[in-house]
Structure formats: structure tokens, C-alpha cells
Amino acid sequence: MNMQVSRRLERFSSAMFFELNQLKQQLRANGTEVIDLGIGSPDLPPPPHVIEALTEAVCDPSVYGYPTSEGSPFFRQAVADWYKKRFDVELDPSTECMALMGSQDGLSHLSLTLVDPGDYVLVPDPGYPIYEVSIHLADGRPYLMPLLETNDFLPDFSKIPPEVAQRAKYMILNYPNNPVTAVAERSFYEQAVSFAKLYDILIVSDIAYSELAFDGFKPISILQIDGAKDVAVEFHSLSKSFNMAGCRIGYAAGNREALQALAVVKSNIDYGVFTAVQKAGAAALTGDPSHTAHMSETYRKRRDVLLDGLKRIGWDIPKPQATMFVWAKIPIPMTSRKFTKELLAQTGVAVVPGVGFGEQGEGYVRIALVQPEEKLQEVVARIEKSGILKKN
Ligand SMILES: Cc1ncc(COP(=O)(O)O)c(C=O)c1O
């Protein structure tokens, strides 16, 4: 058969990641131990009480029917309670909280809910790839908001042309940010809410990394800003905060019209999150909050081991205040793609080229802190031995 895939699919292809994966496989086949700091999949386990809740739930025969796509009342209540406890934000669990099969589910389907062909969506560049891909799914037009170091990696709303803002359906913000690791303060969210109200744009705030913060920094929710619920919906994930990436559970909270519309799309596509997984998710959200503090401390130590080590050998990278990543400027004159390939070939250390997150990511690589401290020490040793930082 001469299969003709859709033109849309061409925008999904990622030759670069395919190439890097092949290189990793080749190295492994030749006996190199690859230290993978590429994908941001947590290597740590969920808290024990979450595994216990899941184990107990899967033994309950009543959880095996279809769940509902918007989530069970007990899970939505747990989300509302968590928002109250963590951010002092009041949410109505039945209209302002909704379960998702990971925040990716919400991020990918929201475009089908709000975007007509030709509509603009304002997305950060660099940005987590699904933001832009989901717009193409709905035949919308991404308008890329550059995240520049000179503006603390925040979008500059004054640079968005009014004719674009007038035709934009929503804007994605992601702080603490993947990949650039930047954080946002209250004043930034206040500006964002004013801008959204001026142009009647929904804000989608992705806080997948809100619980991974260091050195006393505590990320806030956009829903803490007065009037934010009129214009904002927030996506949060249990993947990183509770190491439940494989469980596929997250949620949306905030603007009820947006959630209602998303529920219509999702009720035609899926049947929701397995009830046993929702029970585990509720246990995570209502359980002892010291787990996240402990986990952040683990990432903080990893950050320090890696960045202090790299600084010692001549690669000075600013320490992030949050996330499980490091956003590192490439210290030699080489594109991010070439540097990533050279680094992998010469040291067996896998990272992600910044350009994989958008044009503005060129010149950087993203390093995920998903290996124990000893491995990160070895990363430093391998990089030093290779001499790659001295080449130009
Ligand atoms: C910024 C950001 N948003 C959303 C997601 C998706 O997370 P989930 O596992 O909840 O679908 C990720 C995953 O890496 C992410 O980095």
C-alpha cells in the first residue's frame, strides 16, 4: 500500500531525536555505558503511601468499570483541597477541577476545544514541544513569544502585535519553566492577567514543576492573582511532583468555561483515568507534604554536584531555582545539535539540544538531573577527560 500520511504529521516528525536515539543505541551496542540526562522522566519512586493506595485500589473489584473523563468526585475534591493548602486558592471541585491523563492530555486537547483554523495561539519559544504541536493539530497558528535571557526568560507582552493578540485564543505560560528553568514572580502573573483581560485571551498556566524548587524559593499559582479565574486555567501534573509519570495522571483547575469545553472534547475521546490511579493520585495530593521537600532536596544536591563540578572544569552554568533541569549555554562555538552529538559520541553523556525546543533554544542544551549524584560526578569526569570544552 502506498500510505499517504496527513500533511499535519510532517510537523510532528523529529528527525533530530530519532538520530540521537540511534546514536545512543549504537554506543550501547559497542559497549559504552550511556549516561542519559535527556528525557525528563523521574528516576525516583513515588512516596510509599502512594504505592500502598494504588496496591489497595487495584485489589478492589469495583474500580474496573469505565471512569468518567472529567475524573471522580473524590479526586477532584483532593485537587481542590491541595490548592487550598498549597496556594490558599478556593476551587469548586465539581466545576473548577478536572482529572487529566497527565497534563499532556489537557495541553494536547485544549487546542481542539478553542482553536479554529487560522486562529493564533501565543506560545513560548523555547517551549515544551506539545504546546506548538497541539496548535497544528487544530490547524491554528502559533505566535512564538521569545524567552530571552535579557528579559529573565519571560515573554515581553509589549512586543506582541495588537493584531495578533486580538486574534489569539490562548497563551501558554510555563513557570517554573521547561526547558529554560526560569521562574515567575507575582508581578509577572499580574501583568499576564491584565494582558489577557485586555485582549480576551485565555491563559494556560502549566505548573508541572511547581513542587521542585530550591534554596527557599516557593513557586506560586496564577490562580492566586485577583480575578485570574476569569481568564486562566492551570495544568498540573503528578508526574514530577510525586514521581508518577507512568501512571498518567494530572489535572486542570480554574476557569470553569474552559474546563467545561475541554470536558466535551475529552468525553468524545477518552473514558478518563483508571479509578485506581485516581485513588493513588488523591493519596499523593492529600498525603504528607514533606515528600516534595525531600525530593526537591535530592534535585538540589544533584544540581550542585553537577554544576560545581562543571564550573571547576571551565563550564560555568547559573544554578536554577527550580525544575529538574539545567539550561546550559554551550561553551564552545558549535550549534546545539552538533554539540549534543559530539558530547554523546565522545563521552556517552546524552542531553537534549536546545534547538529541539524552538529556534530561541539554539546555543543551549538541556540537561535533566535524572541520575544519582555518583553518575553526575562521572559525567563531569568524562567531560573533563574528553577535552570537548577546549575545542573550537
Ligand atoms: C512543561 C511540561 N508540561 C507538561 C508535561 C507533561 O507532563 P505529564 O506527564 O503530566 O503529561 C511535561 C513533561 O515533561 C513538561 O515538561
From TrEMBL:
GO molecular function, one term: pyridoxal phosphate binding
CDD domains: AAT_like (cd00609)
Enzyme class: transferase
UniProt keyword terms in alphabetical order: Aminotransferase, Transferase
EC code(s) of this entry: 2.6.1.-
Domain Aminotransferase class I/classII large positions: 33-383
Gene3D superfamilies reported for this sequence: Aspartate Aminotransferase, domain 1, Type I PLP-dependent aspartate aminotransferase-like (Major domain)
Presence of the UniProt keyword Chaperone in the record: no
Cofactor(s) required, per the database record: pyridoxal 5'-phosphate
Family: Belongs to the class-I pyridoxal-phosphate-dependent aminotransferase family.
Entry-linked NCBIfam families: PRK09276.1 (NF006756)
Name of the featured protein: Aminotransferase
Organism per entry: Effusibacillus dendaii
Lineage of source species: Bacteria, Bacillati, Bacillota, Bacilli, Bacillales
